[in-house]
Amino acid sequence: MEAGEDIREQAKHRAPLDKSHLFGARYIPFRSISHNKPTQEQYSLDEVVYRSEDGGLLDVQHDIEALQNYGPEYWKALFDSRTGRTAWPFGSGVWSKKEWVLPDISDEHIVSMFEGNSNLFWAERFGREQLGMSDLWVKQCGNSHTGSFKDLGMTVLVSQVNRLRKTQPNLVQAVGCASTGDTSAALAAYCAWAGIPAIVFLPANKISMAQLVQPIANGAMVLSIDTDFDGCMNLIKDVTASSPIYLANSMNSLRLEGQKTAAIEICQQFDWEVPDWVIIPGGNLGNIYAFYKGFKMCRDLGLISRMPRMVCAQAQNANPLYQAYKNGWDKFKPVKAQTTFASAIQIGDPVSIERAILALEATDGIVEEASEEELMDASARGDLTGMFNCPHTGVALAALIKLRENGTIGPTDRTVVVSTAHGLKFTQSKTAYHSKEIPDMSCGYANQPVQVKENLGDVMDAIRKRYQI
Fold first, then answer.
1. How many whole angstroms separate alpha carbon 418 and alpha carbon 263?
2. For residues 43 and 50, what is the distance between their CA atoms, to the nearest angstrom?
3. Does the predicted TM-score (pTM) go above 0.90?
4. DSSP labels for 334-362?
5. pLDDT in tens, 53-95
6. pLDDT tens per residue across span 348-402
7. N- to C-terminal Cα distance for the chain?
8. Beta bridge partners of residue 121, listed in sequence order
9. How far apart, in whole angstroms, are the C-alpha atoms of residue 176 and residue 199?
């Protein structure tokens, strides 16, 4: 038997789940990590707590020393042996990494729709023809149950809520979130699976119909509020502080534990090699830190030897991180987010600003922005090579185009663009673009239907005009 095969057999029969008492995770203040200072303040994951004593964010800390008792080849083999299988719950891209996510939870409490394991799409034609790149990839996190990467975090959070409701029945009676669309869809679906009441706070008239109908269809209580996301976020914080309603926004660090598995999965899909660049659309900015956590955990446990450089891509109409990047991190100021087609990142006062800054500083990262025309054009250009992009992916592609044009990203750099949602959730904006109905936008890559009569000659004339057949 080859050495690699021997390790895989060990992974199957010596799974650390049989020794779950050896692994653990807890909440600690995020600032103890960002300031690199030990702390005595810590909380069990079974407590309902969102902030540290000084009002700062919390972070989930794993017992890295215990995990290091199993070498990197063991973890690689274990994760590889679970991928794509149906054994509960390990067929999920999140729960295949259970020991690194929520090691203490029982399988019976897990709420999963086998999220993750999303396609790493080789954007060969787009890279070659439009950017002169040979190694461009799109991590299609939107190819998931509710059509966005939010499923990755929601399976973890709702699983923990399910555990709390089973073990401490009066502690949590419902789960609530403020949302720009995708978070509410994920929360509603996972709560519906588990029979847990869900309440979503949505800014009125600021999300697509496809996003709105998802929580409605899954039975959530939908509150349409005459404010923006930041206003909804302030309300949900007040509500959850004074009631047994559990907060599901990314201020709750449990969600980041699921989202970080997308970074681990990227390494796994590249046979445990690291890309040079990872470009991520950013709004509330939890995903920036989550990807950083995933890559860092792989490095700390020896599965990879270096970190990729990270890029946060923001819509110009909601770009507080970009402004801080240009003016100095210490000069960060919230902004009043303006309307953008990238509605899920239309956030002017991001909760995870400190987390994102840490991730970008640690990876020599960059922040880039995209105007409305740039993001819609970039999305359309990608679609013309076989993708079907959401506007947020358009923001990331627009950032890539700029960084390629100015020489920051080289022609052979292995680059991954993270696609955060499925384009089918944003057909209204795509239809408006291709119909050239967007005011003050040229829609230069629009592809309009050609009206012809039911006549062979007219049909052939139209075809020849376009393709010179």
1. 10
2. 10
3. yes
4. ---PPP-S-GGG--SS-TTHHHHHHHHHH
5. 999 999 999 999 999 999 999 999 999 999 888 999 999 999 9
6. 999 999 999 999 999 999 999 999 999 999 999 999 999 999 999 999 999 999 9
7. 58
8. 138
9. 5
